[in-house]
Amino acid sequence: MNFKLLSLAVSGILTVGVATSATAVVTTSPVRQSTDLTEFNSVHSQGAIAQTVEEQTNIRVYEKASPAVVTVDTDKSNGSGTIISPDGMVLTNAHVVSAGGSVNIILSDGRKLVADVIGFGEEGLDLAVVKIRGQNNLPTIPLARPGSVKVGQQAFAIGNPFGQFQGTFTVGIVSRIDQQRGLIQTDAAINPGNSGGPLLNSSGELIGVNTSIFTRGRGGGNIGIGFAISADKLPAFLTAVREGRAPRVAQARSPFGNKSPQKVPLNGPAVSGLLTDKSSVLPTDNSFFDLYSFEGKAGQQITIEMKSQEIDPYLILLGPNQREIAQDDDGAGSKDARITVRLPADGTYTLVANSYQARQSGAYTLELKASAPTAPSRAILQEEGALVAGGPVLPSDNSLYREYTFEGRSGQSVTISLESTDFDPYVAIFGPDGRLVAENDDESDSTKNAFLSVTLPATGRYRVIVNAYDASGRGRYTLTVR
Question: From CA 150, how far away is CA 43, in angstroms rounded?
Answer without folding.
Answer: 40
